[in-house]
Amino acid sequence: MTATGRIMFDVETSRILQILSAEIYDSPKAILRENVQNAYDAILMRCTAQDLKVEECRIQITVGNGVLKVEDDGIGMSEEVLRQNFWKAGSSGKRSELAQKSGVIGTFGIGALANFGVCTSLSVETRHIDATETLVSSARREDLKIAQECITFDRVVNTRGPGTTITAELDPSFAIDEKSTCDYLRQYVRFLPAPVFVNETKVSQETFDEALGGNDTAFEVIKTRGVSGGNYGGTLETAVNAQSRVRVRLTNLTLSGNPLRGELYLVQQGGQTLGFRNLFGLAPIPLSGQYGFGGFVNLDILHPTAGREALSRESIQHVTNMLNLIESSVSADLAPTDHADQNQQFQQYILAQGSIALAGNVRITVLPEKPDVKLNQVATYEPGKSKLFYSQRDPTILKRFASEQANLFHVSQTNPRRKLQLRYLNEIAKVKEVPDKPIVDRIAASKLGFDETVFLIRIRAVLLDQYLMPDVEVEFATISHGVAFQVDGKGDTLRVAIARDMPAVKVVLEFYRSAREAFDPFVQDFVREQLYQQIRDHVPSSTKLGRDALFRRIQQNKELFRVDYSDFGEAESLLADYLAGKVEFSEVVRAVGGGGRASIQRQEVRRDQVGTVEQEFPGIIEADAVTAPPATNEFEAAPPIMKEEVKTDMKVLTVSDPHPKLNNFQMFLALSDRLNKREGEFLHFPHTTKVIWGSHRVVYIFTDATGELSLYYDVELREPLGAHETGGSMFRTTTIVTADRIYVPVPKELEKAFQIIDHAKEFFVRFDTVP
């Protein structure tokens, strides 16, 4: 015999409440968020029904003494809504036409029961906009039973206006204070147009502009236009600041041709993107794009998951599609502006999309002049010159292919600019990359003019006499790609091919034809300023072997001047000064009895020994027509300016205006006659220049090209430099060698120390070479 029956379905009320609160919502404070959201939805529905402004309504939250109260002046609840939606879990009253038209936030229908996860009792007082009485009901958590009448309900006639007040007595384990309430709620209500107060603190009515610094006048709108893509459309406003950072605003949205309420307000590198529905905070939106946009997305089509910890997949996909439209449109807006050159994310985007044509305003360096030109100007830049590009850093290649006849576009070493430049040069500008070696067609001597032959002979003589290079062949050639020089070896002989059509060559040859007396100095300038950069590694003074040869030669020359009795005249002058009380006895001892090469000498500069470079060296400035190629290192060893045909008595030379020929120095000091005789040979060869100063001292340190031999020149001033005038640095070598003097540049900071205004100026010097 089989017994049959039924089992009653039942639930554990306390467990259901725990699930509704702690396991669906991410925090007990989320119940506070739910009540505030319901209050805001009620305000939206009332404002839609009665055509009111949301700003005219208010939400008041009161926290303290274990009680949480949320009050609003929204639409209120009818008895049906109170019974069927608020107190009944799983039923929502926000799916009505009015609710949808109002853009309400909540649709899940958890209702009042979710509150009991954190409170012991809950009461609600509400009045609908169409009602004449107030509904009051309450319940205690310990009395709740499924399918039992455990909730009180009363109708009250009073004068309260429309709206709802929710009062919850909190479980002691879920105490909430004012500060934590404000901190938590701001992320959801900060942008609500209705005022929201926690006790007396307002936590709403902020704008997206204020939050993202949009009122910052540094952002300038560069474009406002309609955009569309896929199923989406809208009005895009693109703004950029001085650092080329982008801010965008997408409004007047449509989806599949239908109006869509909301907007996107994003800033480049703006951090996290937060989702909103009708300005109520929902959850962060995981976005990934080239620009790193972050900010706020406020759309009616955004829906959170049940626990509100994230947005639905469909919501995220909508925003991702809109972001793609924004990035594409912003890139088109930036492309014709100078911001295209500064915004790396723009460059990365068009590179990833293959939109290389948009890179026209990205710049690239062109050698030898080093200006930055736009990529869309490359093809037409200086049409009379050949064009190549180079993507590496080899200084030899840079020197070889950048000249007066050829432009060399030097590709950046940093991505994404580098990849973008390479693709633009290859695909759009159609510029070729430098070959491994230029094509050199040497010109036979029988095809040269007389002036060209003399030019080559004089260059050969300068390399032998001034650069210690006996085994050099110099010849004219036709060199491809606008290369000015080709230097290579032929056994032990160095072969130097010079482009016959170089403008600098034509300038020197013109002096041979029209001003023969200036021809030799211009040949020396040509070698120093044009050729030296190409052959410096082969010059003996630049190698260890050459350094030893140079040192021996200097030592030999020093012996010729080791005994120079005329120098004792300076010691006699010092004795006279000592007797007159002008100098200390120790200075006389150092000068007369020192006995070393670094003994002190007194120098004197009178007013009539101050001249100008323009007077003493006519044509030196004009000679700048022969322009030096850019040095890899501006402080590397360089040859002096040779003016051995000039004799002058001047000890200080000035220049009226800064000039590139003289590296912008405006004062030059003659070294002592004794140094010129004993060590002057050193300064005839390439060297570096360093100056250190402080107190009474100015010290020049000249070092040969190998870095192993130095000459110092120590100047001791009568008057000290200023209390704060101390310093030192490397300077571009601008030594001038004449028939009887050697001049070195005076840094701007020291010009005052060597100015001669009324009477003569005296100082003391020491010098010596240090291997």
Automatic annotation (TrEMBL):
Task: Note the Pfam families from the entry.
Answer: HATPase_c_3
The record's Gene3D superfamilies line, in alphabetical order, gives: Histidine kinase-like ATPase, C-terminal domain
**Could you tell me the superkingdom of the organism this chain comes from?**
Bacteria
Question: Could you give a GO molecular-function term held by this entry?
Answer: ATP hydrolysis activity
Q: Which UniProt keywords apply?
A: ATP-binding, Chaperone, Nucleotide-binding
Family the UniProt entry places it in:
Belongs to the heat shock protein 90 family.
Q: What name is this protein filed under? A: Histidine kinase/HSP90-like ATPase domain-containing protein
- The record lists the organism as Oceanibaculum pacificum
